Amino acid sequence: MSTRPTRIRPDLRAAPLAAALLLAPAPALAQSVQYRSPPGVEYRSEPDTGAIARAERALAAEPRNVTLVLQLGLAQAAVRQYREAIETFTRGLAIAPDDPMLYRWRGHRLLSVRELDRAQADLTRGLDLDPANYGVLYHLGIVRYVRGDFAGAAESFARAHPHAPNPGELAGSTDWLWMSLSRAGRTADAAAMLARRPDSLPVDNAYARRLRLYRGETGPEEVITAADSDDITIATLSYGVGNWYLVRGDTAHARLHFQRAVRATDGWPAFGFIAAEAELRRLRRNAR
Q1: Per-residue pLDDT averaged across 143-163, rounded?
Q2: What is the CATH number of the domain that holds 81?
């Protein structure tokens, strides 16, 4: 059943009511379609376990509180209700149109649902508002990378790197910077960057494991182990190995790992999954 948007007569000057209507909580949707891939595979959200309902109640009590808007959007994103989160951040921008964090998070979630033009526009706006915002720079780098703008991605990750908030993000931005430089044809710069070991803080995550591969400290067959069962991890690691092969000119092995990344269907929000989709499209175009 379709519904029509609420219309408010222009002669009704009830500003507080209008604000409340603007920020009225959207109905929680369980298992809503978030992304439909070109082959027609539907990827869905997860149901609320209580965090969204609590965030909605808090926002209803203070409908112009941008912090509460962000908390609701983050609660929605935590259960992959990305399109609902995008609507929430959009409502927040009606209140605070110059808040860089709203652009950071809306841009991130537009990336999650593969709306790359809109994601890039939001993150570019966020960067204008806060040039040192790590989240804006990092996710703008991802968008540029997925679109094949590897030089632009390298610039974003190089700017993000000094602002990494923790060892995990430091490893992540180092990893994406190496990949971006390598894909931009700047292999000497990529090698020199790794040699400086900017990711020196200890951490054990998927990016740290990929970095060991790039440095020759482990082999490609050792990156993914039998203990890796989480689809986000598998997509992340598989993409990194595939890109490593691609940089070395081995498109056959690269394709196999990109395909493995997108077969990890529950990992569809992972940047490795999103990047692997783009690589497979590029490989198909180049094969024609």
Answers
A1: 98
A2: 1.25.40.10
Domain containing residue 253: 219-288
For residue 133, the surrounding DSSP H or E stretch is none
Say if 278 falls within a structural domain. yes
Q: Is residue 144 part of a domain?
A: no
* Cα–Cα distance for residue pair 50/270, rounded to 1 Å: 24
User: Which whole-number Å values give the CA distances from 184 to 66, 151, 158, 204, 262, in the listed order?
Assistant: 39, 5, 13, 27, 24
Beta-sheet strands, E only, within the chain:
33-36, 42-44
Cβ atoms of 180 and 146 within 8 Å: the answer is no
DSSP 166: S
Please say which residue of 86, 119, 152 terminates a domain: 119
Q: Where residue 201 falls among pLDDT bands split at 50, 70, 90? A: confident
Across the chain, mean pLDDT equals 91
Domain contains 137: no
Q: Which of 78, 99, 119 is the last residue of a domain?
A: 119
Residue 216 falls in which region: left (phi positive, over 0), alpha (psi -120 to 50) or beta? left
Domain-embedded: residue 153: no
Task: Tell me the residue type at 278.
Answer: A
In this prediction, residues 1-16 reach a mean pLDDT of 35
Indicate the pTM of the whole model. 0.88
Q: How far apart are the first and last CA of the chain?
A: 44
Tokens standing for residue 4:
């029509």
